[in-house]
Design goal:
- This protein is α+β, with helices and mostly antiparallel strands and 98 residues long.
- The protein has two helices and five strands; from the N terminus they run H-E-E-H-E-E-E.
- The chain has helices at 3-18, 44-68, and strands at 27-30, 35-38, 76-80, 85-90, 94-97.
- The protein has a five-stranded antiparallel sheet with strand order 2-1-5-4-3, with helices on one face.
- The longest helix is centred in the middle third of the chain and has 25 residues, at 44-68.
- The radius of gyration is 14 Å and the shape is globular.
- 16% of the residues are buried.
């Protein structure tokens, strides 16, 4: 696969997510927390807060998964609270936070 095909797949996924009912935002960032893309109405400060928090939480969850079985890898993390739900897709190059 080339990077053009990967970007096309990312764009399709973002469009599918944006039209889902209840979606308030998304953030795509690299593993260092640099925000690459965000929901159009989301401020850059808000996107950076989500990215920083989710990277920290995801790294802790990833360590726990590996502690339980070193052959396993964290792929997705879902956090539900009373009012919000956050889903994190952990990839080789980027985190996607929705």
């Amino acid at each position: 696969r080339n990077s053009f095909e990967d970007m096309s797949e990312v764009e399709e996924t973002i469009e599918r997510i944006k039209v889902q009912g209840g979606v308030e935002g998304y953030v795509i960032c690299n593993k260092q927390g640099q925000v690459l893309r965000r929901f159009p109405t989301m401020t850059s400060d808000e996107a950076e807060r989500y990215a920083t928090s989710m990277i920290s939480l995801t790294n802790q969850a990833r360590g726990t998964v590996r502690d339980l079985n070193p052959k396993n890898e964290l792929r997705y993390l879902r956090v539900r609270a009373k009012r919000h739900e956050i889903m994190v897709a952990y990839g080789i190059h980027i985190f996607s936070v929705f």
